[in-house]
Amino acid sequence: MSSGREDLDRLIVAIAVDRDREAFAALFAHFAPRLKAYLMRSGATDAAAEEFAQDAMLTVWRKADLFDGARAGAATWIFTIARNRRLDALRREARAPQLELAPRPEDPERPDQLLEGAEDAERVRHAMKSLNPDQAEVLRLSFFLDQPHSEIAERLGLPLGTVKSRIRKAMIKLRVILQPSSGEGLA
């Protein structure tokens, strides 16, 4: 089979319109090895690349009706699906909590550690009061409520860049305020 753009586009249309298994088999035979190689070059293991490639091709089968040859060719569409699957997996891995295999017994905090923690918390509360209300709000949402910057921007009706800028400026100001003076820490 020739693998020209028009031929590949027609295979996707045949899958979308007729659920043509032969067209899918031809598309799979053409793209699966190329997807796997591409994914391995992007850092996926052999097994993961195989899985992403198969998942991308399964998506092609299920969503062939969404293909628009006027916007992109078959290769671009299919490689984009594979790339997005890989990025989604990387994002999920990054968000997954890293579990310790063996729990460590926690030493109870000593009274001096408790006092230091309380003093540090008081210093931070005092420093937060020195920020302008806009900066304090974005820090509260970001660090205390653990909201992503995009959600903060949406919640406050601000551009994402403004949120990031306010956080950066607030952090710089807090660093200056909370920086230990030259006499602290010497005993």
Overall mean pLDDT: 82
Structure class:
mainly alpha
What count of helical segments does DSSP give? 8
Helix proportion of residues, in percent? over 70%
Q: Can you describe this structure?
A:
The structure is a single chain. This protein is mostly helical and 187 residues long. The chain contains eight helices and no strands. It has helices spanning 5-18, 21-41, 46-63, 74-95, 111-129, 133-144, 149-156, 160-178. Helix 1 crosses helix 2 and helix 7 (149-156) crosses helix 8. The model is unreliable at 182-187 (pLDDT under 50).
Task: Summarize the topology.
Layout: H1 5-18, H2 21-41, H3 46-63, H4 74-95, H5 111-129, H6 133-144, H7 149-156, H8 160-178
Helix pairs in contact: 1-2, 2-3, 3-4, 6-8, 7-8
What is shown here, in short?
The protein has 187 residues and is mainly α. Helix content is 71%, strand content 0%.
Question: What would the keywords be for this entry?
Answer:
0% strand; 187 residues; elongated; mainly alpha; 8 helices; disordered C terminus; single chain
